[in-house]
Write a structure and sequence with these properties.
There is one protein chain. By secondary structure, the chain is an alpha/beta fold. Helix 1 packs across helix 3, helix 2 crosses helix 3 and helix 6 packs across helix 11. It is globular. It folds into 3 domains: 68 residues, Orthogonal Bundle (Arc Repressor Mutant, subunit A), CATH 1.10.10.10; 143 residues, ATPase, nucleotide binding domain (Nucleotidyltransferase, domain 5), CATH 3.30.420.40; 153 residues, Nucleotidyltransferase, domain 5, CATH 3.30.420.40. It has 12 helices and 15 strands. The structure holds zinc ion (ZN).
């Protein structure tokens, strides 16, 4: 009960537009003022909430002290390994990015141990920088361009990885040995990052206004991540759909030309041979058409109302848009009834590592009692 109420109080403060008083939190949660006060004391002592000065006095009576999430408490370490870069970021409890580092280097010549050792050094430096800022890294999550099951990277075709224990490799770095580390598919994590920014979890300082507000269908979308390979994350009613074994979203290996170019996966004519980052650099109109063909099949099958283009697609969204929409209009049965909404990802190329860091922060926000026990 206490664990549930701690989470409820933290959630109420996190979702308030201005720092609420203890009385306001009691009003919003239905808990008594005495209960809220005791819970707030624990959250303040545990470094999750801070008390902030009240706004200037406007009427009679003494204004109450407000409550806010702390920006010097627990933080999430988001990591990403992709075909042509390594990246690390640190996100604090309020959702603000406090540290970000991207190292561009082709990972294909490296074996998994070399690549993960290099990422481990980046992660250790990020943790050190975060701790110098007064943050406590609560855990790390790694985004990979491949299929993940049971904590193992089962296959990542563009990295030529098979059955790689990336978590063990990262925890072998002395500076990371004590951290909980998880691994997930990069498009899934990017889709979760996108959901957090556009799908209603407020209190994100990086929330961009305008076109990223997708309206009533903001909680159902297909996120397409364009890198050297192409992945997708399907979010339905605010929940990530992972597939029966956790392997859904491999849109990069949907066939767009049956007798087309050979793919690293062993098949031919896969989408990523026409719309992956390297093909995109050669022929943008062809990439847009290929994307439109593959996405039409997804929309016809799943009735997904919104497609979000992320990764390398986000910065060139404006030039890809018309070519993709032309295919959707021509190929989606229902396009005359309800056109598919196409938009650029709100977080751009950082979505996967941001989504990864967010999973750590979300863990703390959803179970502050566990964090308080850990840090006691
Ligand atoms: Zn393929």
């Amino acid at each position: 009960m206490r664990a549930h109420n701690l989470a409820l109080v933290l959630h109420t403060v996190a979702n308030s537009t201005s720092p609420p008083s203890r009385a306001a939190v009691a009003g919003a949660t239905g808990l008594t003022r005495a209960t809220v006060s005791a819970l707030v004391d624990d959250l303040v002592a545990g470094g999750l909430l801070i008390e902030v000065d009240p706004p200037p006095r406007t009427g009679a009576g003494r204004p109450a002290v407000g409550l806010a999430l702390t920006s010097t408490g627990p933080a999430g370490l988001g990591l990403e390994i992709n075909v042509d870069y390594l990246a690390a970021c640190v996100v604090d409890l309020t959702g603000a990015v406090r540290h970000r580092h991207v190292e561009h280097a082709d990972q294909r010549p490296a074996d998994p141990a070399q690549a993960l050792a290099a990422l481990g050094r980046l992660a250790a430096a990020a943790r050190l920088a975060a701790e110098a800022d007064g943050l406590v890294v609560a855990g790390a999550a790694l985004a990979v361009p491949g299929l993940v099951a049971g904590g193992l990277v089962r296959v990542a075709p563009n990295l030529a990885w098979q059955d790689v224990d990336a978590v063990a490799a990262l925890r072998a770095v002395p500076e990371l040995a004590d951290l909980p580390v998880t691994v997930d598919n990069e498009a899934n994590l990017a889709a979760l990052g996108e959901l957090r920014v556009t799908g209603g979890l407020s209190n994100d300082r990086d929330r961009s206004p305008g076109p990223t507000d997708a309206g009533p269908s903001g909680n159902s979308f297909l996120y397409v991540s364009g890198e050297i390979g192409i992945g997708a994350g399907l979010v339905i009613d605010g929940e990530l759909y992972r597939g029966v074994r956790g392997w859904s979203g491999e849109i990069g290996h949907v066939t767009v030309y049956p007798d087309g170019r050979p793919c690293r996966c062993g098949s031919r004519g896969c989408l990523e041979q026409y719309a992956g980052q390297e093909a995109l650099a050669v022929d943008e109109p062809l990439a847009a058409a290929a994307l439109g063909i593959a996405l039409s099949a997804v929309v016809n099958l799943l009735d997904v109302p919104v497609i979000v283009l992320g990764g390398a697609y986000a910065p060139i969204f404006a030039t890809l848009r018309e070519g993709i929409e032309a295919e959707l209009r021509a190929r989606v049965l229902t396009s005359g009834l309800a056109p598919v909404t196409l938009r650029a990802a709100a977080l751009g190329p950082d979505a996967a590592m941001r989504g990864a860091a967010d999973t750590i922060i979300r863990g703390v926000r959803e179970d502050p009692a566990a964090w308080l026990r850990r840090s006691a």
